[in-house]
Write a structure and sequence with these properties.
The chain is mainly β and 78 residues long. The protein has a domain of 45 residues. It contains no helices and five strands. It has a three-stranded antiparallel sheet with strand order 3-2-5, with no helix packed on it. The protein has a two-stranded antiparallel ribbon with strand order 1-4.
Amino acid sequence: MSIQKGERWLCQNNSCGSEILVVESSKLSNDENPRCSCGSIMKKPYVKPEVSDFRVGTGTVDHCAGMATEPFDPYKMT
């Protein structure tokens, strides 16, 4: 596990609530999340993934032209 400069890590203990901001990247020796001074595991906050639109161009691609009209034949692969 490595921690990167600029990451925020939050303590999972609600009564503690500590937060760290990483100022220097490093690699953890035992491949687990860092621990807070209270002893609890720290985790990065959840970031909701962004959904992007996939738009197909209006023109046909040369190697796909006519494929919809022919049935699929696995022995006729080019």
